[in-house]
């Protein structure tokens, strides 16, 4: 019997606009989809992070985890039996199967569901299915294209479809959603998929596929809707205070009270050891060195950069993203210097042993850096992380528009304005205050391309966009083939060169080179990326064992 597994149906979602995060039980397609409530439940079930998350930041050169050393992506060990690959594939096709089931059976509710409601719910579902296929083709290339429920027997004969054919299907589905979804649902009816969400997914998909005109037009359409705006504070956007921001286009609701959250292990990996954490999930030195100085120049060109005071005179997004040395963080002064054996705690109102220096705690941050972006001051007390998960926000659309226009050779004032809006927000000023932030004025395509790529990196860390940027720009073979570096062990640390021994040279792609620093940096792990195969992921072996008609990508 064909059956859709509603593993976590959202209870209480009889309203078509609000989302509840509690699970119900399974529902067989034999009796389901018979009324409006059941249609809404089916749609709401797909508003879960398992179906929406961007790529893991650990797949990139922005983040590193002490306990993992290297994951399968940056370690070059990904294979067809990799659990992460299987989960990605399974979640995508699980969502696709549920959409197909909905579309095949929705007419059962036609007699008691308004036509407008059915059309909108179908548009939401088709958007979700399009999103799944957009992610599948960027990671796997050619994949099976399923648009209706299939029997077990039929599934054995399924083969992969050409990526270009699936891409066109995605755009067609998104156009249906754009035409049939509302611009908004009202202040009390947030978090549902809208016309803007469909346009934003179209813009991202087109950008990743190098379809510059489509990316330009879709991102411009989002801008022209007039319903989105940059949040006034970059740092606050990623905390609870930002969850209702007009900058958010797609975000997935999460809430401790509804039992949708990350627990103690995740929290402790991300917070300082003084605050009760492990200091294990870390920004890389590569990430830190990507931020410009306040004169708009990279660190290897700016006279303002001092490797002994690396947080000074930098793009404000640096100290909004990475904890600055010698500042209070989570109730304790953060100072990883090997001679700072005690620090002052504002939480305890006294000096305490400094567990954030490796001279006291051997497993304190190996890079010397800690994440600040998105980390709430309540995390150490609650041991809970339940921030809403941001999937797409307005800043991405501005930079998508700018990038598409640059690649089309259509550089004009609108390109500079799109980039400068984001740069000005970082400094807390308006875009017109060009003397208060390093406004971009160049119209040279080579210069603007470098600015745009650097801007994406420093605007979106921890949001899961860096990996796909490295893939589509064909930079993964460079960025993911260099070592992860950290501070020398305390006994080997030259205090005169603390924290960093000199200015890291950056290449034309903005990638840092630490090879000339010798023992003044410590190699923590070696990244490895095989350009002959890793630009696509392997088709999961379990799928091919069941159905040999599904061919494998080259090199796996």
Automatic annotation (TrEMBL):
Keyword NADP among UniProt keywords: no
Domain SusD-like N-terminal, chain residue ranges per copy: 60-206
InterPro entries cross-referenced by the UniProt entry: SusD-like_N, SusD_RagB_dom, TPR-like_helical_dom_sf
Boundaries of every RagB/SusD domain copy: 263-556
Any one annotated GO CC term: cell outer membrane
Signal peptide from the UniProt entry: 1-18
SUPFAM superfamilies associated with the record: TPR-like (SSF48452)
Family named by the database record: Belongs to the SusD family.
Coiled coil: none
Protein name stated in the entry: Putative outer membrane starch-binding protein
Domain of life: Bacteria
């Amino acid at each position: 019997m064909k059956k859709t597994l509603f593993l976590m149906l959202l209870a209480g979602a009889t309203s078509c606009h609000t989302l509840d995060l509690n699970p119900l039980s399974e529902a067989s397609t034999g009796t389901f989809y018979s009324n409006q409530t059941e249609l809404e439940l089916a749609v709401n079930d797909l508003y879960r992070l398992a179906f929406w998350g961007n790529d893991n930041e650990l797949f990139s050169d922005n983040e590193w985890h002490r306990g993992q050393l290297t994951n399968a992506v940056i370690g070059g060990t990904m294979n067809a039996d990799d659990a992460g690959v299987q989960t990605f594939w399974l979640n995508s096709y699980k969502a696709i199967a549920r959409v197909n089931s909905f579309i095949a059976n929705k007419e059962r509710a036609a007699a008691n569901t308004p036509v407008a409601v059915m059309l909108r719910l179908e548009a939401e579902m088709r958007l979700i299915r399009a999103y799944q296929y957009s992610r599948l083709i960027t990671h796997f290339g050619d994949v099976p294209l399923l648009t209706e429920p299939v029997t077990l027997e039929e599934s054995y004969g399924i083969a992969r479809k050409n990526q270009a054919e699936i891409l066109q299907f995605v755009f067609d589905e998104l156009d249906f959603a754009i035409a049939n979804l509302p611009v908004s649902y009202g202040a009390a009816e947030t978090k549902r998929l809208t016309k803007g969400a469909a346009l934003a997914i179209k813009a991202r998909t087109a950008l990743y596929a190098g379809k510059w005109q489509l990316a330009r037009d879709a991102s411009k359409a989002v801008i022209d809707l007039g319903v989105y705006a940059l949040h006034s504070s970059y740092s606050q956007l990623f905390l609870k205070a930002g969850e209702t921001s007009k900058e958010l286009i797609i975000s997935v609701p999460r809430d401790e009270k509804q039992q949708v959250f990350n627990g103690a292990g995740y929290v402790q990996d991300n917070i300082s050891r003084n605050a009760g954490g492990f200091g294990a999930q870390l920004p890389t030195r590569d990430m830190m060195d990507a931020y410009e100085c306040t004169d708009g120049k990279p660190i290897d060109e700016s006279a303002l950069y001092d490797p002994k005071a690396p947080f000074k005179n930098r793009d404000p997004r640096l100290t909004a993203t990475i904890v600055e040395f010698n500042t209070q963080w989570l109730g304790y002064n953060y100072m990883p210097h090997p001679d700072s054996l005690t620090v002052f705690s504002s939480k305890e109102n006294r000096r305490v042993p400094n567990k954030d220096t490796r001279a006291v705690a051997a497993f304190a941050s190996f890079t010397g850096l800690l994440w600040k972006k998105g980390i709430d001051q309540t995390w150490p007390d609650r041991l809970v992380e339940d921030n809403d998960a941001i999937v797409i926000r307005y800043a991405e659309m501005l930079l998508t528009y700018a990038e598409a226009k640059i690649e089309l050779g259509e550089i004009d004032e609108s390109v500079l304005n799109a980039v400068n809006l984001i740069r000005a927000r970082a400094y807390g000023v308006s875009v017109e205050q060009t003397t208060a932030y390093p406004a971009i004025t160049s119209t040279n395509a080579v210069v603007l391309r470098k600015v745009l790529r650097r801007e994406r990196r420093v605007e979106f860390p921890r949001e899961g966009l860096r990996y796909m940027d490295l893939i589509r720009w064909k930079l993964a073979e460079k960025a993911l083939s260099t070592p992860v570096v950290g501070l020398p062990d305390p006994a080997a640390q030259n205090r005169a060169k603390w924290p960093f021994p000199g200015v890291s040279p950056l290449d034309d792609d903005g990638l840092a080179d630490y090879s000339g620093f010798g023992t003044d940096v410590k190699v923590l792990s070696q990244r490895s990326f095989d350009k002959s195969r890793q630009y696509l992921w392997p088709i999961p072996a379990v799928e091919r064992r069941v159905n040999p008609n599904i061919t494998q990508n080259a090199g796996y």
